[in-house]
Structure formats: structure tokens, C-alpha cells
Amino acid sequence: MRSYLYVPGDSPAKLAKARTTGADALIVDLEDAVPPAGKDAARAGVAEFLAAGSAQPRIWVRINPGALGHTDAAAVVGPHLAGLCVAKTESAAELLELDRLLSAVEAERGLAEGAVRIVPLLESAAAVLAAPAIARAPRVARLQLGEADLAADLGVTPGPDGRELLWVRSHAVLACAAAGIAPPVAPVSTDFRDLDALRESTLALKRLGFRGRACIHPAQLPVVHEVFTPTEAELDAARDLVSRHDQALREGSGVCLDARGRLVDEAVVRSARRLLDPEG
């Protein structure tokens, strides 16, 4: 998954159009995008949208925090739901409660236990400090940062390159790697008109270890796809490296030389394998 496009959950027209944007996945938002008075109607509309859906693009639903989020989850769980983005997650204990609810709903609706995955959104200082435990909670597929709320909680003002949040971003990548889950999805850029800046920041986030990026506008999708789609040359180089290393193993050696004559071992080859099989 290279792109995750946010779509407000209270707009049936935008939900229908979102399927045609080319996004790899959608995040249907029942939280910030929906005013309090409209949440019941939006929840019912999103449940109907999912029931009439298909396998592509993959659909995630951002649920509200706390008890309201449990109501959201119970309404939208079904065969066409990839998972839940849990707004304002603060602790692993919250996710344990959600896991129990989801297990009951899955059993009731004939789904395999654990079918619904969870992506916690870290949006506070407490959540960031609890990231290692949150990443190890049941059903967690990866972490995601909600940087607008997080910056407000921390009292920082991010500049153009976002360096003020660099340590938080690296911490999220580290927590995912330590828990053995997928790398985090890169946070949104709210300026959807400056595509050059979007490309630059997306490349920087990719170098930090993020894979895929959340988007707020379809105009951002081509840039995000370009950055996170490996070129044929990159794929060829990865295949060659894996082939060389596999041959070295067959010959009884754990190291080999790459095409440029540099010594590599399994730690280096691991990145090439991930490029060729990102879901593996």
C-alpha cells in the first residue's frame, strides 16, 4: 500500500468518488471530519457503504476514541473492512478492550478472529512514549502519527522540513521495527497544492523508514505513488543481490559481493527482500 486517502464519512458523494481516485487504500473518517451532531448518520452511512463495497481499494475506518469508537467499530465491521484507524490512542490497555469487542463482533458475523486489523494513531506525548507497548498490542498492523494534534500537545511549531518532529517520526519507525510489525504510514501534508514540497518531504520520510503516505486530496496521490513505487532498475538490482546471496549460501558462505564488488551479508540483503516482497 503506497497511499491512504482520507475521505469524510458524512459525504456519500465523496465516498463514492473516492473509489475511482486510484488510491491504494481509503481511510473513511468518522472522527475529525464529522461534527458531533452528524456522527450517528455518518456511522450508518459508512456501514452501508462498506456493505455495498468491494475488495479494492482496501478500506479502513478512522473511529472516534473511547466508547464512541467502540460504537463505530461495532457498526462497520464486515467482510469489506480492512481495519480500523483508532484516533487518539493513548495506551495498549485501550486496544485490549477494543480487541475483546472485535473478537465478539467477528464471531457474531462469521468472520475469522483477528480479521480486523488496527492502526493506532499517536496524537499526544503520552501516546508517543507508550508507542513500544502500543505497537505490541493485539491486532496492531502498524503505527501512524497524527502530527497536528501531536504538535499542539508538545507545543512545537513544525517548520517546512518538519525537523521539529524528527525524533517522534524515528521513534514510531523504531517502535514498529521492534514489535516486528509493518513500518508506519507517513503523516499527511495539509498543503495539497505544493506538489514539489510534497515530493521532497515524502522522499525524506521514505528515507526515515516510512512506507506509504496518508493523503488528504487526490492530487497528492501521483506524487506519493511515484516515491513509493520501486523503479525497474531498483527491482533488478534487488533481484540480483538476492540471487547472489542465495548462491553464496548454497556454496556454504554467508556473504557475497554485489554488482559493484562490495561485501554484503544477510543484513544488507534483508532490505532487498523487503523491496521484492513488501508484504512478506
What features would you describe in this structure?
The protein is 47% helix and 14% strand. The chain has 280 residues and is α/β, with parallel strands linked by helices. The chain folds into two domains: 3-228, TIM Barrel (Alpha-Beta Barrel), CATH 3.20.20.60; 232-276, no CATH class. The longest helix has 19 residues, at 232-250. The model has no long low-confidence stretch (mean pLDDT 92).
Secondary structure tally: strands: 9
Percent strand = 5-15%
SSE order in H/E notation? EHEHEHEHEHHEHHHEHHEEH
Q: CATH superfamily membership of the largest domain, which one?
A: Phosphoenolpyruvate-binding domains
Provide mean pLDDT, rounded: 92
Q: Which range best describes the helical content: under 10%, 10-25%, 25-40%, 40-55%, 55-70% or over 70%? A: 40-55%
| Outline type | globular
Oligomer: single chain
Q: Total helix count?
A: 12
Please state the second-level CATH architecture of the largest domain: Alpha-Beta Barrel
**Which topology of the largest domain does CATH recognise?**
TIM Barrel
**Radius of gyration, whole Å:** 20 Å
Secondary-structure class: alpha/beta
> Low-confidence parts lasting 5 or more residues at pLDDT below 50?
none
- Alpha carbon gap, first and last residue: 13 Å
- How many structural domains are formed by the residues? 2
* Largest pleated sheet: 7 strands, parallel
CATH class (first level) name of the largest domain: Alpha Beta
